[in-house]
Design a protein that fits this description.
This protein has 164 residues and is α+β, with helices and mostly antiparallel strands. It contains 4 helices and 7 strands.
Amino acid sequence: LVSLAGQRPAQITLTGEIVRPGFYGVAAGSRLSTVLLSAGGSTPQADLRAVLVRRFLSDGSYIEQRLDLFTPLVAGDPLPDLFLQDGDAVIVPKIEVGTESTYDRQLVARSNLAQPTIIIRVLSYDRNTVANLNLRNGSNFVDAVTAIAPSLLTADIGNIALIR
């Protein structure tokens, strides 16, 4: 008598604008959105309008499916989730210059497809310190200044700068 103790994990490749690209062993039949989250989500440079899933076939050829994960976010619709199979490769492209005008990065940053937090480095001359600050992805400059809580007595509020 032979019994199956459990399914072998599916090996998925994640590449492109992913926080932690690489090879992932996931449960067979995992959803694309779940696998993206396990890799830390998309980066701020990701274009979720054209996520590519490449499935390799037994004869060495492959088929590709392009998924738009952005439009459902805008419309508030369910994501077109795809069940991944062993050997699938997921490629998240970088947003192309000139196509940003119709792409709401703030919406993506606050979705469950993007990395949940970002780290910014803060240089404080009034405190003589350098520190990292964790903020929710999609935070703005005012959120960062509020989190820093500069001293109104010693900080030169008129000289706060953002350097990218």
